[in-house]
Design a protein that fits this description.
The chain has 287 residues and is an all-alpha fold. Helices cover 76% and strands 0% of the residues. The chain starts with a helix and ends with a helix. The model has no long low-confidence stretch (mean pLDDT 80).
Amino acid sequence: MRPEFIALAAAILYSGGSITARMGMHHSTPLTAACVLLFLRTVVFWSGVFLTGGAPRVEWLPLLLFVGLGILQTATSLLQLTGIHRLGAARAEPLRNTYPLWSALIAIVFLREQAGLGILAGTVLVVGGIGLISWQPVDSGLRYHWWEAVFPLLAALFAGIAFPIRRIAFDISNEPLYFAAVLSIVSFVSLGPYVGVRLRTEKLALNRSALPRFILSGFFESAASLLSLIAVSLGRVVVVSPIVASTPLWTLILTVVFLRGIERINARTVTGTFAVMTGTISIILSR
């Protein structure tokens, strides 16, 4: 299967994970969801590794790269949470979703990947569409300093760095499942200090209403993460990254179906949806 369609499947599964996690958080807390999802992802991936013959022999460099990516993934989440706290989600989320541009730029400059006009235009359309879909009006009284936008932009930069690093690692040892397991356990362990701080103000709330939804979300997220890594291992970063970034489009569609009445569809959302779809098609056809 072509990596573009694998990346598209990953984007849709990520959306399913977001919707089911949101359903679970009606009865629980975001901190509980993060702990359960990362734990499930770790269990799923390491179970897969052992069921397929155990840990494969890989070079030390890609292994170290994925250990670093696990730490980077935790830092990315913390930076984005800081951005949301300081700027509000309406401003922080669109900035965070600019990562395909950083990823494409890094891939072109350092990996010498070729990006034609169709791929570049598609990337811009995807990022622009995500911004339109994610952005929401905020109260005019909200005040913040311009430099506080650095937090979500750094999160976007770290996410953009992650894609080409994965590509470098896979060029040396192409073991997506094993590296997904390494990434998951490092991220889970790295979450520990953050959980310790948050427990001072937020409690873990795991109950029967939330647990099934979190489990389903965990499987969606695990499958999406693995497909994303497989897509990167098979395709070019400048192609795969923007397609995976189309997740907000599918989240919007699933929200209308499963969470009707919570979010409102307007002209800005329709325009953003059209931009994301057009950009994704442009990237696939420009392969």
